Amino acid sequence: MTIKQINIRRFKLPLIFAVLSVVLMGLYKTIFGVENTIIGLIIAMASYAFLRLDLTSYPIYKSMIFLILNLFLAISAYISAINPFVGLIINFLILFTVSFIYTTEFKNVISYIFLLLYVYMWEYPISLDELPRRLVAMGVGVFIIIGIHILFNRRNFKKNSNSIIIRSIRNIQKEICHIINESYREKENIYIDSELRKLLILIEGRNNNKFIENHKDDIYFNIVLILERINSIINKVGKINNKSKDVIDYLNSLNHDLENITLFLERKVDCINEDKDDLNKSSMINNFTDKEYAFLGECTELIRLLEKNINNLYEYRRKKSRKRIKVKFNLKEILIGNSSLKMKHLRVAYSLKLAIAVSLIMFIVDLFKIPQGRWIVTSVYVVIQPYEEETLTKAIKRFKGTIIGVIIYISIFTFFPHIIPLELLLLILMFLYFIQKDYEKKVVCTALMTLSFGLSRSTVGYLAFYRFLFVIIGIVIALGVNKIIFPQSIKNSIYDLKERYLELTSKLLYELKSILYEEKYNENTVKLLLDCNLIESKLIENKLIAENLEIKDLVDKQSIILSKIRCLILFINYSNWGITSKHINVDKNLLNVIFNKIEEELREIY
């Protein structure tokens, strides 16, 4: 791809969404009234922000959830605006509940956008006669968001997951070549594990459902387990010196079969011919009499499983089979999931802090009818972040961005108040907003947009003064709240994540005890594995981990244990997949031995 093509792609999406913003604002103003104009703008911003998520799995279900949530928020915003004291209670409950449900170990874009929409609906109150029109506006907005998301993201999961699988197999092939050439390094093996961890994160992001038992991406999960096991076996082989000719021949054949699979994934061949696999030759599977190479024969079955799962994956896509969706309702799982309600946990602390601060400011602004007081509310809401360091960074950038925006606004509109039509100005500002990555520059754009909207009703100096003053007040309040109410630092969050990590692993072991007898894992087991993987990834990405050798050692040991647990689940699957082979003879006694070893290793960490 040339630099010119990259630049075109970089500007294309922001331009599309800038045009969409102007169009939606115009349509919402015309169809749903002036009081709902801002909803059109936020819907466009939400459509752009949600592109970083994956909502393509069960889109109808997710549309219904978002529809119910948005209608509930619209009704709640209407009721809360009637009376400040009733509003205080409603606003607190809404802010806490939505934030808690959608916030995990980091601030979630869903809660951020929908609560921002709630705050704006509260800031622009309506009469009872206007409520049905607002409800329709919110409902239409949900289907616009989901429709745009499917339009732009419908192939992303397939493309990204296939890319990771191909890269992982290619890297395993490189490992094998390096072993044959006696130039193997373990860091190659670690890199493959990190790639597979990314695929698990993609699977979790796609299947974060609260009401549906989702088995749609089980095949991808199986592929991760299989590739991780192959990678582990290759690592064992790489550590053995003086490989025999039989081992080298086997590795060459293994490499050849992996090449066939990769070519199929790259669409360079039409099918994987399982009958012609070199590893299926009897001469290849019967030569490992040495104890140190006994585990290598398992690769034969793993390759066969990998081929079957990849063929099933493409067969599933080709047929587009529709399984009956099993709806479930578990209040504890919906609200808490695999978390706990401890006050020190980030999810609880952040949601409470946000709800207390924003609902109190909303109450004061409403009670005293402070003009333009919504700017204080919005500033408090957007500046408060899960961690103190993030809040301070956001506050500084919002302060700088507001000053720059106010200066530009005064400079232009004092002397040339009508030089640019409002629609064209909005288009330019929204394009700049979407193209910018830095929050400070985004604030400059939003400040100019907000001030431009109010120009017809107020003077330039009046608007600029109150915008600057109220944003500063909001920033100061947010910083104070962040210091006083449940302060959380990134450094301390490491210990919180560590506890969650160990807690989820313990729950996972408890699940495995029952699975060993049923010989079938359930949805909660996979969810726990994916949650553990997500926290593990967050810990590994945290730069402070490298400075804390104790926690770094814990994460390394935990990572190995989780890998063994995934391997244990793979062994359990062998019986479900009907595998009988002298290379894989997994019975309940062996599974219990593996489980007990994992339990002992985890006990040592505690």
Shape: elongated
Query: Distance between the terminal alpha carbons, to the nearest Å?
Result: 50 Å
Mean pLDDT: 81
What characterizes the major β-sheet? 2 strands, antiparallel
How many structural domains are formed by the residues? 4
Radius of gyration, CA atoms, in whole angstroms: 28 Å
Discrete helix count? 23
Proportion of strand residues: under 5%
> Which spans have pLDDT < 50 for at least 5 consecutive residues?
none
Adjacency order of strands in the biggest sheet: 1-2
Helix content: over 70%
The arrangement of helices and strands along the chain is HHHHHHHHEHHHHEHHHHHHHHHHH
Given the helix and strand composition, which structural class is it?
A: mainly alpha
Strand tally: 2
Provide the fold topology:
Elements: H1 3-32, H2 37-49, H3 59-80, H4 84-102, H5 109-123, H6 131-153, H7 156-180, H8 186-206, E1 212-213, H9 218-238, H10 245-265, H11 282-285, H12 298-319, E2 326-327, H13 331-335, H14 346-367, H15 374-383, H16 388-413, H17 422-435, H18 439-453, H19 460-484, H20 490-518, H21 523-541, H22 549-576, H23 588-605
Helix pairs in contact: 1-2, 1-17, 2-5, 2-6, 3-4, 3-5, 3-6, 4-5, 4-14, 5-15, 7-8, 7-9, 7-10, 8-9, 8-21, 9-12, 9-22, 10-12, 14-15, 15-19, 16-18, 16-19, 17-18, 20-21, 20-22, 20-23, 21-22, 22-23
Keywords: Cell membrane, Membrane, Transmembrane, Transmembrane helix
InterPro entries: Memb_transporter_dom (IPR049453)
Subcellular location: Cell membrane
